[in-house]
Amino acid sequence: MLTPELRDLPLLGHDAVVVTAGQRLARACRQYLADTYASNHVAAWREPRILPIDSWLRDCFAQLTLHSDAPMRDLLSPAQSAVVWRNACGDVLQERGLPPAGINALASECQRAFSLMQSWRLSDSDLQVYPAGDNSLLFERCLMAFRRQQRAHGWITDAELGGLLLEQASALDKLLPQTRWFAGFSQLTPIQQALCDALAIDHRTSRTPDASAQSVYQFDSTDAELIAAGSWARTCLQRDADARLAIVVTNLDQHRERYRSRVLEGLDPQS
Which tens digits make up the pLDDT trace of 163-192? Predict the structure, then answer.
C-alpha cells in the first residue's frame, strides 16, 4: 500500500520518471500501477520510468556520456571502488610501517566516510576544518592515496555521481523527462536536495512518525536492551501480524547468535 503522496501515480504519463528511495518502493510503485490499470480493465499502458536512486544516477551518467562530445570518466562500481580503497589503504599502512591486519575494516570505513562526504557535499579541503585526531589523519592520508589512483586512471565512483550530475545539470535537464519525482525519501541529503532544486524535481515527501509518539529508554546492559526489543516486537506483532519490523544493532557479525538469542527471549518468553 502506497502513501497518499504517491496515489496519483496513474495520472503520470510515460514522459515521466519516478526516482524512489529504494528498490522495494520501486517494485511497489510498479505493482500499484499494474493493479490500478487492471482493475480499470486497461489491457496495455505506457507507464513512467520507475527506478531506485542509485540506478537513476547511473542512468543519468550513461545518458550524459552518450550525448556528450567531451570524454567522460570511467565509472567504478561499489565493488570496484572497494578494491581501489583497499589498495590505497594498503599503501598508507605500508608507508607508515603499520601491520596490514585491519586493512579490510579500514578500507570499508574509509569508503563509507567518503560516501558520506559526497552526500553532504563536503570537499576534501573541508576536512581541514575539523579537529585532526589520529583516525581523521589516517583517513586523510588514505583519501589522498585514493585520489592519486583516481587521477591516474580517470575514475569516478558511484558516491560522486550526484556531484557530477549537479555540475552537468543544464545538459542533463534537456535529457530528462518533463515530469520528475523523488518518492519515499523521508529526508533528502544535501546533494539530493541540490539535484531537486537544479532539475526542478518534485519531492514527494514521505511522512515520518510524529516525534511526540517516539520514546527513549535506557537499559543497564545490551542484553536487557535486546530482550526489551524482542518484547516490543511481540507487542507490535500482536497488534498487526503482517507488520514489518526492524531492530538495528551494531557489531552483528561478531555477536549474531547472542543477539538472536536475546531478541527471541523477549519475542517468545516461553521458548
Answer: 999 999 999 999 999 999 999 888 899 999
* C-alpha distance from residue 12 to each of 1, 142, 157, 178, 232 (Å): 18, 46, 32, 11, 40
* 206, 198 Cβ separation under 8 angstroms: no
User: What secondary structure, in 3-state letters, does 125-140 show?
Assistant: HHHHHCCCCHHHHHHH
Of residues 214 and 144, more confidently modeled: 144
What percentage of the chain carries pLDDT values higher than 70?
A: 92
CB-based contact 84:189 (threshold 8 Å): no
- Judged by DSSP in three states, 210 sits in coil
- CA 180 – CA 48 distance, rounded (Å): 10
pLDDT the model gives residue 211: 44
Q: How far apart are CA 229 and CA 233, in angstroms?
A: 6
- CA–CA separation, 91 vs 208, rounded Å? 44
